[in-house]
Amino acid sequence: MIPEYTWKPHQGSPERTTLGWRAMLGQFHAFTPPVPSVQLLPILDQIVALDEALRAQHGRPIYFPITKYGANRPAGQQQVRAAEAYFVKFPVELFDVIPGIEAARIDAPLDPMDIDLPEDFQPSGKKAPAGRTTRAVDPKLRDAVERRALNVAKAYYVNELHATDYEEVGKPYDIRVTVQGVPRRCEVKGSSMEIDTVELTYNEVEHGKAFTPMDLIVVDNIVPIKDPVTGEVTGATDGRRRIWVDWTPAQVDLEATRYAYTLPAGAIS
Predict the structure, then answer these.
(1) Which residue has the higher pLDDT, 117 or 25?
(2) Predicted confidence (pLDDT) per residue in 175-210, tens digit
(3) Residue range 44-48: average pLDDT?
(4) Residue 109: pLDDT above 70?
(5) Of 210, 198, 195, 214, which Cα lies nearest the Cα of 254?
(6) Is residue 252 one of the residues assigned to a domain?
(7) Alpha-carbon distance 259 to 231, whole Å?
(8) What range defines the domain where residue 75 resides?
(9) CA angle, corner 269, sides to 172 and 239, nearest 5?
């Protein structure tokens, strides 16, 4: 439960103040690839039949996710539309009707190289499965984690190494800096979870191989700061710092567009 908030149920209706509730969602499994409505048209009658069968079995409402628009129109003018609702259910029986969506099943096996673990629904500091890359879906959380990681890296170079010419570049590397007269570059990765694997893009790998000296700084276990009323992420703090000095990525598969890079031993803190 969250503090009271004021809202309007409908346009023109009076405001009301009520208690709020927040439900955290997780275990998101996307359709890969997405399913366009035109793909569902040939099986629309099967989908409608399933909807009717579930209503007969369970009663109303069942929050079915797909509707048949223009049911009284000729077959060629009918459309498939998503149900107009904030949330809907996705009956498991639809996996037997719609082809090509098996990967979205909750019990479907996950390929850690293809699917990032969302950090949004994980407690800060939770250990990610070995070999699994992570990603913040919420852009505010993602920005806060990245900003915290960059701030930790900056403190290392400027406060501890007394570096000069500090500059945040972004791509294909994050930081350009001069340490004791020597130009260095750095790739920075951040996470709110405890991780042993980070994602490297093709360009990051190529740059890491081509330029020396290059460092890798990983800051995990970052703690997001949230607004107590809205729950929105407003910043981040803490984090465990690990540094690989004179780093070169060992993975050299140039055909991939990104890499899951298992962090080697030998980091300094």
Answers:
(1) 117
(2) 999 999 999 999 999 999 999 989 888 788 889 889
(3) 86
(4) no
(5) 210
(6) yes
(7) 33
(8) 30-105
(9) 70
Q: 167 and 237, same structural domain?
A: yes
What's the rounded Cα separation, in Å, for the pair 156 and 216? 12
Report if residue 116 sits inside a domain: no
Structure token pair of residue 171: 């791509």
Would you say 86 and 65 are in contact if contact means Cβ atoms under 8 Å apart? no
Q: How many domains does the chain have?
A: 2
pLDDT mean across residues, the chain: 84
- Report yes or no on 198 lying in a domain: yes
CA angle 24, 108, 54 (to 5 degrees): 75
Against a cut of 0.90, is the pTM above it? no
Instruction: State mean pLDDT over 64-86.
Output: 76
In terms of phi and psi (left: phi > 0; alpha: psi -120 to 50; beta: otherwise), the region of 82 is beta
Q: Which string of DSSP letters, residue by residue, matches 115-128?
A: -PEESTTS-TTPBP
Q: Is 17 a domain residue?
A: no
